[in-house]
Specification:
By secondary structure, the protein is α/β, with parallel strands linked by helices. It is built from nine helices and seven strands. It has a seven-stranded mixed beta sheet, sandwiched between helices. It starts with 5 loop residues before the first helix and ends in a 33-residue tail after the last strand.
Length: 248
Amino acid sequence: MPELSSEDRRMSIPGLEHWLETAQGRYVRAWESASMDNAIADVFGFNALQLGLPQCDFLHASRIPLRQKAAEAGTADVLCELAALPFASNSTDLVILPHVLEFSPDAHQILREVERILIPEGHLIILGFNPVSLWGLRNRFDRSGSFPWHGNYLSLTRLKDWLKLLGFEVDRGNSGCHVPPCDQDAWLRRWHFMERAGGRWWGLPGGVYLLHAIKRVHAMRLITPQWRKNAVGSKALRPIAQKETHGH
């Protein structure tokens, strides 16, 4: 792998740009792009935000009119710390987190910020590498320190627990890239038959997952005064006696 210049290192995670152009990178991007297009097809609103990975446009198929990318470095619409987003609370309809959490030391704080800026019933879509997969197995034993094997992969169980604590409800999810994490196109094509059956035959989820969650806000119940209902006495219900009129 070629050594990155200091300028490249400031722009993104070291090794990311190179990996995106490798056989592995292209394979993962193809699955993620198709899956994301399908996931956001029915998400509507006014503001959509992609946090991180500005080299890839995961919002291109969105019907939301205002689409922005925010990142800590690189070419983005907004440059900012992802753990302290410069966006108003309850202002965003859709947030996409592509491979941000497993490469950030502030993963939980980033999720808190996402929850803050999302509107009630807003959508969050997360792309991540799955530790319970062939790709996760390589992540566990690869000591090269190269991207993406140095990341802290988050299991779906752990991620769902975090989201639940923040008031999210997982809507749906799926996984892909069931092939072994080969370095060459020829081997990826040779193992591509594993994608057709997915985890049903091999017993392992895919190396990459997409998780779609919705921010739930429980409706407030208006507490009204408990008006005392006075019991009506039996006398009050007794009909008024009619006086007889005697003729003269």
